[in-house]
Amino acid sequence: MCRHEGPRWGCGRCAPSSMLLLIQLLSAAPFGLLGEETRQVSLEVIPDCRDPSPNLLHIRAVGSNSTLHYVWSSMGPPAVLLVATNTPHSTLTVNWSRLLSPEPDGGLTVLPKNSIQFSSALVFTRLFEFDSANTSEASAKPPGKPYPPYSLAEFSWNNITDSLDLATLSATFRGRPIQDPAGAFANGSLAFRVQAFTRSSRPAQAPRLLHSADTCQLEVALFGAYPRGNRSLFGLEVATLGQAPDCPSVQEQRSIDDEYAPAVFKLDQLLWGSLPSGFMQWRPVAFAQRQRGRESSLPCQASPLRPTLAYLLPQSPIVRAFFGPQTDFCAFNLTFGAPTGPGYWDEYYLSWSMLLGVGTPPVDALSPLILGIMAVALGAPGLMLLAGGIFLLLWHKQCSQYQPIN
Amino acid sequence: MEEDEEEARALLEGRPDGAGRAAPGVSGALPAICDPGRLAHRLLVLLLMCFLGFGSYFCYDNPAALQTQVKRDMQVNTTKFMLLYAWYSWPNVVLCFFGGFLIDRVFGIRWGTIIFSCFVCIGQVIFALGGIFNAFWLMEFGRFVFGIGGESLAVAQNTYAVSWFKGKELNLVFGLQLSMARIGSTVNMNLMGWLYSKVEASLGSAGHKTLGVTLMIGGITCILSLICALVLAYLDQRAEKILHKAQGKTGEVIKLTDVKDFSFPLWLIFIICVCYYVAVFPFIGLGKVFFTEKFGFSSQAASAINSIVYVISAPMSPIFGLLVDKTGKNIIWVLCAVVTTLAAHIMLAFTLWNPWIAMVLLGLSYSLLACALWPMVAFVVPEHQLGTAYGFMQSIQNLGLAIISIIAGMILDTRGYLFLEVFFIACVSLSLLSVVLLYVVNRARGGNLNHSARQREEIKLSHAE
To answer: Out of the domains of life, which is the source (chain A) (predicted)?
Structure first.
């Protein structure tokens, strides 16, 4: 299994001048600190003593010399803040009265401020629904006639304290629209399951993304909601902070290895800047059944990121609280499924997973089983050829020794 | 596969026990095309013979050509999908021994051919009905019935060829029949997807009905083959009257007790055969999705590349046959073929190189192996046991294909294509191991498997003296 480690620049093998070493250390500082193998992870629901309804989940992952803070919240649209610091002692402070005010700037702070090496945010703004009944082209854009989207800011969410599971380090935000005249979500909900990890591993369930202690996994699941068409496709709009004038890009990596996600040879990544920084990583596959077998896998298409203005998106108080009045956002859409094939309509179920993390994204390596089989499969005939050659040579020699007698 | 036996026979220059006795042209009054003694008439018969097998070859690989559609419309996983191939192979584990017997002793060549063609037709219709009624078990049953007819029909086709062309254009005829078989598979691979989309457009939606109707239309090729069987039966009977020629016989004598006398090299040849073919046919059966997902091919391009093995095999089989005939050294050629296949699978598994390279290599090595491996049986088995040996070889090959098809489907569903490819590499590697062992054993025993053509000629001459 591949354990990824942050680059280790400036480990002085030769002794350059002290000035050079200092520069090296400075340049290495931001991310030489990240990429730890294990972390102490704590999940904490930060309560507001006056009003317990707003959900604010703080995941604090402490390493030997760095701390990662993931702050998930369903105030406004579901959103996550990702803050990496280069000290094991950094803390999150919440000023509830400011956070709940119309101008929440400064409501969330990570201290000490100068320890922050990287910060960004993701906001899940809208749930799209398309009618794909009359589109035969799987790659058609848009994938069908769009229905009015559900704004996730206008969802009501459960109290996550109930779903907090400290054994698995997970919590689930489950929501349905506040106003649902058609009753589409009468028996259904949209769930964001958040999970943190103390070490590198791989979940048993597809799509089996390799995670490390620096990452946090999000599973989005829609289930039980009545679709508005017979063959409805769903999509999710994701917004992130942009660094004007550019947006981060989504890279699609091709791989030869599909052992952990059969027949999925791609891995999508969104990188906030040059490596190593923050990343969002997912396999372009979603599932239409709880078992998440290959027969229920759906393609997942990501649009390129497009710059968008803050006022066009539902506001997330925690993003505003931490970053102040930002205007530059970038958004992209994920679309799950195709007009043909399995889909949400089969079992009214859809799930998709992603990783959010800091540092170098985890990279899959060939499993020991595959390497073992290959070694035997190629080694055995090779050895046989060698042994056979030697045997024939000796045998031939023996024969030729007797020949003179004839 | 049945075609391999054809290849073997073609290369063995026909078996000595065929029954084609060409009488001198009797009726000069008949036009050439109607005169069974004349070439023109034989060409007509040849055309019919080629189309006799077309239907079964076309429909054999229908599941591969419609892999995504079958899995989606019938809502089955890959393991169940591969059962469609396994069910085809199961009856042939037994029938390989009895196909010849049934033709010779029970039905006769004419009725035998018609009956086997009917099995193929009915099997395909049941298969298609399974789609229309959304019953996967019915589809499996259809493949089973189809399998009963399919392999035996190939035996019948060979028997006809021997009966009409022995001592004339027999090798060419075998070659042409083989090419036709490959063309059938190729046309299927490239046509069925298109046909499905047309049916989908006219029915308005995809689904099990669309699949069933598409397969039913594909079944027309089987009807065509049945018509060929009927016309052939008529012409053969007519020729019998005019030329006083006897009804063709396979001449196969199968004695299962011979199995205990099989030599060690023959068992090695069986292992090579099974381990090699299970890494080729199940791969082609599952290949289409591999090319679309891993290499980003369109559905059409994936069909094309998936059929390239067959396309290459059509012209290359006769050429390699000639090459092996002229040079001898069969084990070395088999070794080359197996090593090339191993390299092709390694490329497919571990690189993102254009898969055309690997698939062309696979096609070439597959053709070469068929030409070099199957004739080797004749060198290690006394002639009276040849029928049993070939029957046994086909039987265990079918057994291997049936079992490995299921295993391949299971591996794909749980572990993905890379692992599947590694599994195939291990199979080919086992085959390679056997080839090396065969070489050593043959050298140590002073066997004749690896003689050059000239050495064989000399031995023949010295025996003659």
So the answer is: Eukaryota
A2: in domain: no
Residue A198: both structure tokens together: 């103390």
Tokens of B274: 């099974």
* Whether residue A305 is found in the same domain as residue A378: no
B293 vs A contacts (CB less than 8 Å):
258, 263-265
Burial annotation B117-138 (CB, 10 A radius, 16+ → b, else e): bbbbbbbbbbbbbbbbebbbeb
Span A212-228, pLDDT tens digits: 999 999 999 999 999 99
Please identify among residues 288-307 of chain B the ones whose CB lies closer than 8 Å to any CB of chain A. 289-290, 293-294
- Looking up tokens 């078996």 gives B15
- Say yes or no for a CB contact (<8 Å) between B429 and A380: yes
Q: Do A381 and B352 touch (CB under 8 A)?
A: no
| CA gap A103, A320 in Å, rounded | 8
Asked if residue A377 and residue A233 are part of one domain, the reply reads no
Kindly provide the ipTM of the predicted complex, given to two decimals.
0.84
Tell me, yes or no, whether A387 and A267 share the same domain: no
* Overall number of domains in chain A: 2
pLDDT, block means (10 residues), chain B with 465 residues: 44 35 46 78 88 90 90 86 91 83 82 92 95 93 93 84 75 77 88 91 86 93 94 89 75 74 91 95 91 92 91 86 85 94 95 95 93 86 80 88 92 93 96 92 85 82 73
Asked, for residue A401, whether it belongs to a domain, the answer is no
A45 and A98 assigned to the same domain: yes
- Type of residue found at A374: M
Q: Please provide residue A193's backbone torsions phi and psi, each rounded to the nearest 5 degrees.
A: -100, 125
pLDDT digits (tens, 9 = 90+) for B41-96: 888 888 898 889 899 999 998 999 998 889 888 888 888 998 999 999 999 888 87
- Shared domain for A379 and A259, answered yes or no, is no
Q: Is B38 exposed, middle or buried (0-12, 13-18, 19+ CB in 10 A)?
A: middle
Same domain for A211 and A300:
yes
| Within a domain: A44 | yes
Boundaries of domain holding A60: 8-359
Same domain, A236 and A254: yes
Instruction: State whether residue A252 sits within 8 Å of chain B by CB.
Output: no
Euclidean distance between CA atoms A170 and A203, whole angstroms: 13
Query: In this complex, is the C-beta atom of B202 within 8 Å of any C-beta atom belonging to chain A?
Result: no
Find the CB nearest B352 among A254, A342, A381: A254
Residue A399 is assigned to a structural domain of this protein: no
Do A22 and A75 have their domain in common? yes
